Amino acid sequence: MVALMLAESVLEIFKRLSTVTLVVLFLTAISPIAAGQQFTKTFPVSSDQNDLEVINQNGSIKVTAAAANSGKVVINAKHSEGNPRVDATQTPDGKIKVEVSGRGLTDFEISVPTSTSLDLLTYKGTISVANLNGPVRARTTTEGDIRFANIRSQKVEGHSLSGNVFFDGEALPGGEYKFKSFSGKLDVTLPPDADFRLSATSSGGVIDLGGFPLKFDRQTNQLIEAACRSGKAKVSLWTQDGSIHLHRKP
After folding, report:
1. Measured between alpha carbons, how far is 137 from 135 in angstroms, rounded to an integer?
2. What is the rounded CA–CA span in Å between residue 24 and residue 30?
3. Would the pLDDT of 37 be above 90?
4. Are 181 and 242 in contact (CB under 8 A)?
5. What pTM did the predictor assign?
6. Which residues contact 52 (CB under 8 A, 6 or more apart)?
7. 122/54 Cα distance (integer angstroms)
8. Contact yes or no for 57/81 (Cβ under 8 A)
9. How does residue 227 score in pLDDT terms, banded at 50, 70 and 90?
10. 90, pLDDT greater than 60
11. Per-residue three-class SS string for the chain
12. CB count, 10 Å around CB of 3?
């Protein structure tokens, strides 16, 4: 009888310990998700020419120049909501594609060689690109601002549905610069000696030309077609309801 009672007591203690152990293991398993997940990937690339495509569902994309002659693309992503999945691959010819699937918020910080060709898309979130000289296309399909800073590229495109688009950079001879937003503002800053041909359209906002010495081919309240100097670069600005502002760098 005593032996039976002792066995039952030991069994009860074991059950309680097992329950505590399971609870501890469960809490340990979910704590990394509550704190946020990190994704990091590095790809070796050519320092003079390479391509990067990023497709994000919800969240920001920030791309900056890596250290000189780094020869690599470094991708850092943080998941702060939900449980999205990040896939990052590189083709034999060196093209890198990063794509997010699933629901949640993912923010990217990416460093690339300065000549990298970029194709960036986020359905909801901001995009910023700084200190690069390769071709750039950036798109936000619902909301989110797009910012280009210190860009020296011959081809730059920025399209947003409702966000603002900011560009601060060079207008190089033979370059094309296209910025669109259905309801956001377009804000473009160029050197005071910039040589470009301008097409600016806003159906519902003001068009501020920033004091550039323009020769007008066509000028209405909603449409400006003009040349600054000989028109070596093409600058195209379109917004349905937003305003357009040109600025000369000090």
Report:
1. 7
2. 10
3. no
4. yes
5. 0.84
6. 63, 73, 95, 96, 97, 98, 110, 112, 116, 117, 118, 119
7. 8
8. no
9. very high
10. yes
11. CHHHHHHHHHHHHHHHHHHHHHHHHHHHHHHHHHHCEEEEEEEECCCCCCEEEEEECCCCEEEEECCCCCCEEEEEEEEEEECCEEEEEECCCCCEEEEEECCEEEEEEEEECCCCEEEEEEEECCEEEECCCCCEEEEEEEECCEEEEEECCCEEEEEECCCCEEEEECCCCCCEEEEEECCCCEEEEECCCCCEEEEEEECCCCEECCCCCEEEEEECCCEEEEEECCCCEEEEEEECCCCEEEEECC
12. 7
Chain-centroid distance, C-alpha 28? 34
Q: d(Cα 122, Cα 77) in Å, to the nearest integer?
A: 14
Q: Each residue of 9-22: pLDDT tens digit?
A: 434 533 443 443 33
CA torsion 66-179-135-86 (nearest 10°) is 60
The CA–CA distances, whole Å, from 85 to 67, 79, 102, 105, 108 equal 28, 9, 6, 10, 13
- The residue assigned the tokens 């750039």 is 136
- pLDDT above 70 (res 38): yes
State which amino acid sits at residue 119. Answer: D
Instruction: Please list the residues that pair with 245 across neighbouring strands.
Output: 187, 208
3-class secondary structure per residue, 59-105: CCEEEEECCCCCCEEEEEEEEEEECCEEEEEECCCCCEEEEEECCEE
